[in-house]
Design a protein that fits this description.
This protein is an alpha+beta fold. The chain is built from 39 helices and 18 strands. The strands form four sheets. Strands 1-2-3-4-6-5 form a six-stranded antiparallel beta sheet. Strands 13, 14, 15, 16, 17 and 18 form a six-stranded mixed beta sheet that branches. A three-stranded antiparallel beta sheet has the order 7-8-9.
């Protein structure tokens, strides 16, 4: 057709072809411009009625006038040739550009914004592309993105639907299979979310240089798109931020409702990345250098962003079940579980907002399988005597007593003590015991909160007590507030507050009580302190929902309770879209749901909520604690350290930011900085068992078992009813190879525990039985643990080990498969999680898949080459692969790095070499060193 004319368009040369016809460069003689002319395949418009309908659809598409959409000028026919006249774009297709490899993230962000802009403009006109792919995207010489063939897939399908039968072939209509959403492949109705999936596939290819699924076989590709998730982009491009990875993977969700709700929402997420600079995680690049310097102070250098962390996700380090903890050590994984209900000085971050939200902190221990260290939030009993007021003002706000119907007044009373604690904590001159610590002390140490003031003072190390009652009667709600000086045994304040029940204003009430206490203390809060102590919202209905959300979590910590709380927090935000603390609590609750379900969509919501909270108020310590927790689980260690450092700045009297810094330093391998941070936490709060246990764990990580035992035993000495102390002591004995003593301590923990529902105790006992070769008993205990915590791949992997060595091979294989799935989900969240990679290596090897096992352990060792646990995992994989000499070399290095020789002596994976004199000599040599 070169040289021929169609109407007033003279064809110059052919420039392309595809499933919907040939494309030519042509000259518009009327307007004296070059255009692109696309001819449709001969015979596709069989009659005039079909041609008329096609023309009408084309005119609709011609109305899409946007700088990121290639414009359709007109539709014409001549001599049996049907053609579309379109804007001619000079440049390269994205397909050509990506043939050279992945793009830099800034370029991905820039092009991603333009892509979303074009799609959003079309969706606003009710037009869905349906065939978005790199070949249909042009990049001009000045960097502008242009989407080609917009709406043609639907136009062609509606006009000649028989072409839809070829949709599973390469570039066929009405879509190109590698970029088609699952609902599109199933023939279900499609909408803008179908284009979101395709946009996610395009962004994936920009980020990695390859399609989400590389299989070429149509049947296998169809199965992959419908049932599998692609490899996390960060695995293929380690320079890609986790923020961009989250955006891409959310767009590629199988169900439309799990993707971004609109292309506008996707655009906003990309925009957040592009508008920030400086931080490791682009979503927080606005964090300024002064915050970074604060974290660097006192020799606490931030870890490089390449360190893989999922809370404490390194092998044998503490990690959060919300991030789905991984199996730890080689043959046996040893979880050290630390329950850390946040111990903030601001009370709204209560037990519900910490334990329930963070879930249970588990840490893997180098010399142990699944022993579980529990750190609890209540303070230990202080030395005899009460601090004088000259030593400082140490305040406790006791739970208000409900006199009447707890169902209607319970959340009011809980709101009072927690919010008053938060407000008072805004003043550095006061040392306020958090409301969560008060409740946990009362529960586990059986402290009588209605007992004598001096007894409460000694238990909590305070000299000022706020307490009171809430009651309803005659249509009124009456709040009685008391404020007592403990050393002098005198009341400072006794004041009633009454409100009509139908017009109860909790915000006003809490403000009045707070101001009364401040006046009694003769304090003059600075303007900044007043801002921090201000009401979290001005909307009373929003605050009511917020309090009910917290109350729901305090009463019920299971999935139902968390869902109920989420509903209340979302309603609070609907009432007040600028309610920062509601977003923080919502973020925490979303993370709790992730811990319960291992569904990464919950975690994405957690990140979005925390980031939104920061946009609303960057000066709340709660915001930065929530962000730090999220980034820690994402493996963004440096940003997590920065956030906890910022919380430390904003709340200088609180031990919690130091505690979190210690955990994060420890995860990144900065052990000395971790110990310094824990020591600082204990100085700020000498009554905290949390800080004491964390310090003990840091010693444990250095293989200083006796120092660790001193800390853990002090917990039970100070609080004989605290079962966590017995658990931690049992974990250390397990690491030392004292299995009978370990079982004794763990069984004592069961006797003291308020219920039999802690999976860690049973898993630890199962580990001890495992090393004693009592495999049947090990199965029983691990089955109990898995029943309680079915989404913890550490615990599931331990059960698989027990099945395997008790000769229940079919059950072992099935359970390893489950553990593999759970660990893989963790990698979907953080592709550099060495704990998950090492665990996967073990699961694959024990389940007979040695190539994948080798690949996983190779990747893990590249990320963290000095981790003794990973080196021992490598030795285990090599033993299973029948490579004993290589296994011994890895074992020698693992022992040199600190792996426990006691566990090597009894690990059944090494049974074939344990009688060898050279093996015995090797292990014995390191046993002497460890002693």
């Amino acid at each position: 057709m070169i040289g021929e004319a169609l109407g007033h368009y003279r064809i110059i040369k052919k420039i392309g072809s595809g499933g919907m016809g040939e494309v030519y460069r042509a000259r518009d003689d009327k307007l004296d411009r070059d255009i692109a002319l696309k001819t449709l395949p001969t015979g596709t418009l069989a009659d005039e009625a079909t041609r008329k309908r096609f023309r009408q659809e084309a005119l609709i598409l011609a109305k899409l006038n946007h700088p990121n959409i290639a414009t359709i000028h007109e539709f014409g026919s001549q001599d049996g040739v049907d053609f579309l006249v379109m804007e001619l774009i000079s440049g390269k297709s994205l397909k050509e550009i990506l043939s050279q490899g992945p793009l830099a993230e800034k370029q991905i962000q820039r092009l991603g914004l333009q892509l979303a802009d074009g799609l959003e403009a079309a969706h606003q006109h009710g037009v869905v592309h349906r065939d978005l792919k790199p070949a249909n995207i042009m990049i001009t010489s000045d960097g502008r993105l242009k989407i080609l063939d917009f709406g043609l897939a639907k136009l062609v399908q509606d006009t000649f639907p028989e072409m839809a039968q070829s949709s599973t072939k390469g570039d066929a209509v009405p879509g190109t299979m590698p970029y088609m959403a699952p609902e599109q492949l199933k023939g279900a109705p499609v909408d803008g979310r179908t284009d979101i999936y395709a946009a996610g596939a395009v962004l994936y290819e920009m980020a990695t240089g390859q399609r989400p699924f590389l299989v070429s076989n149509s049947a296998r590709l169809l199965d992959s798109i419908l049932h599998k998730m692609p490899r996390p982009p960060c695995e293929l491009n380690q320079r890609l931020s986790s923020g961009m990875q989250i955006i891409i993977l959310k767009a590629l969700e199988k169900l439309p409702e799990d993707r971004h709700h609109s292309i506008h929402e996707l655009r906003l997420e990309v925009e957040r990345l592009t508008t920030t600079t400086g931080a490791t995680h682009p979503a927080l690049e606005t964090v300024n250098a002064s915050r970074e310097q604060d974290v660097v102070d006192e020799k606490r250098q931030a870890a490089p962003p390449s360190v893989s962390v999922s809370s404490r996700s390194e092998k044998h380090e503490p990690k959060i079940l919300v991030a789905t903890p991984a199996p730890q050590s080689s043959a046996r994984t040893h979880t050290v579980q630390i329950t850390v209900p946040e111990v903030p000085q601001w009370a709204w971050l209560s037990l519900a907002g910490c334990i329930l939200i963070s879930g249970v902190l588990t840490l893997s221990i180098p010399a142990v399988r699944d022993s579980v260290f529990h750190i609890f939030s209540h303070p230990n009993k202080p030395p005899p005597g009460i601090p004088s007021l000259e030593e400082g003002k140490h305040v406790i706000v006791l739970p208000f007593d409900v006199q009447g119907n707890r169902d209607t007044l319970g959340y009011v009373a809980e709101g009072l003590d927690e919010e008053l604690s938060r407000k008072l904590s805004a003043m550095p001159v006061l040392h306020v015991v958090s409301a969560s610590a008060v409740k946990e002390q009362a529960k586990h140490q059986k402290v009588d909160l209605n007992g004598p003031a001096d007894n409460i003072g000694r238990n909590f190390g305070v000299n000022l007590i706020v307490h009171g009652t809430v009651q309803e009667g005659g249509g009124w709600i009456r709040i009685n507030v008391n404020f007592d000086d403990v050393p002098d045994a005198r009341p400072l304040l006794a004041e009633p507050f009454s409100y009509p029940a139908a017009a109860m204003n909790l915000l006003d009430l809490e403000d009045q009580v707070y101001k009364s206490i401040v006046r009694e203390l003769k304090l003059r809060p600075s303007s900044q302190e007043q801002i921090r102590a201000a009401n979290p919202t001005s909307n009373n209905d929003a605050y009511d929902h917020y309090l009910q959300g917290r109350y729901a979590l305090s009463r019920q910590s299971n999935t139902e309770g968390i869902n109920t709380a989420i509903g209340f927090y979302e309603r609070a935000i609907q009432e007040d879209p600028r309610f920062t603390l509601a977003y923080v609590r919502l973020s925490d609750s979303y993370r709790a749901m992730y811990g319960r379900t291992s569904d990464p969509s919950w975690f994405r919501r957690a990140l979005e909520s925390a980031e939104h909270a920061q946009k609303l108020n960057d000066d709340l310590p709660e915001v930065h604690l929530a962000l730090g927790d999220v980034y820690r689980q994402l493996g963004e260690t440096k940003v997590a350290v920065t956030e906890f450092g910022r919380a430390k700045q904003l709340s200088p009297n609180s031990d919690l930011p130091w505690l979190r810094l210690g955990i994060t330093y420890e995860e990144s391998g900065q052990r000395d900085q971790a110990v310094d941070a824990y020591l600082k936490a204990t100085q700020l709060n000498p009554y905290s068992l949390v800080d004491r246990n964390e310090l003990g764990y840091a010693y444990f990580r250095h293989n200083e078992y006796e120092k660790a035992l001193v800390q853990f035993r002090s917990v039970t000495d100070l609080d004989p009813a605290n079962y966590y102390g017995y658990m931690n002591t049992g974990a250390v004995h397990l690491a030392q190879g004292k299995y009978d003593e370990s079982i004794q301590e763990l069984e004592r923990a069961l006797d003291v525990a308020p219920s039999d529902d802690d999976p860690a105790i049973h898993s630890d006992i199962g580990s001890a039985y495992f090393y004693l070769k009592r495999y049947t008993d090990s199965v029983k205990e691990n089955e109990k643990a898995v029943k309680i915590s079915p989404n913890d791949y550490t615990i599931v992997g331990n059960l698989a080990d027990a099945y395997r060595w008790s000769k229940r091979r079919k059950k072992a294989a099935e359970t390893y498969t489950t553990a593999i799935d759970l660990a893989t989900r963790q990698l979907d969240l953080n592709s550099r999680n060495t704990d998950a990679l090492g665990s996967l290596a073990l699961f694959y090897a024990k389940n007979g898949d040695l190539p994948r096992a080798t690949d996983c352990i190779r990747r893990a060792r590249l990320i963290d080459p000095s981790n003794s646990e990973l080196i021992f995992d490598e030795a285990t994989v090599r033993m299973i692969a029948k490579q004993p000499s290589q296994a011994i070399e890895s074992l020698r290095l693992a022992l040199a790095k600190g792996y426990s020789p006691k566990l090597v002596e009894v690990d059944p994976e090494f049974s074939t070499v344990q009688s060898d004199p050279n093996f015995k000599k090797l292990v014995k040599g390191y046993s002497r060193k460890s002693n």
